[in-house]
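Entry for the shared binder. Reason: the reviewer on the internal report wants the predicted structure included alongside the sequence.
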Amino acid sequence: MATVKFILLIACVIGVSKAGVILPGARLAGVPAVPVASVINTNYDPLPQYTYAYNVQDALTGDQKSQQETRDGDIVKGSYSLVEPDGTVRTVIYTADPVNGFNAIVQRGPLVHKALVPVAPAPAAVVAPVARVFG
C-alpha cells in the first residue's frame, strides 16, 4: 500500500495526464530545469561499403558452413549455408534495401553423405594348437 501512495505522490508532483502519461514540461518540485544536451554522432558514413566471407570445412567434426555478404550504401546482398542436423544443406540467399526491406530465399539441398573415416580391421585372432598331454 505504501508503494501505491508513493506513486500517486510522484504523479501529483510531476504532472501526469489521466492516461498515465508524464506531461511535457513536468518536473519535480524544487528541482531546477536543466537543458538536455543533444549528442551528435560525427562518425556517420553516408555510403558504407564492405565485403566479407568465411568458409568452414572441418573433416574431424563434420562441421560445414559458409557465409558471404556485400554492402554498398543501403543495399546488402549475401548468402549463407550450413548442414542441418538431419544432414541436409540449408542455403539462404538474401537481399536488403530501403525500398523492398529484407527478402530471403531458403533452399534445402540433398543429404550430405559424411565421409566415413576408414577403420583398420582388427587383426584376426591366431589360435595356436594346444598339445594335450594324457597321463
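Summary line for the report: The chain has one helix and five strands.
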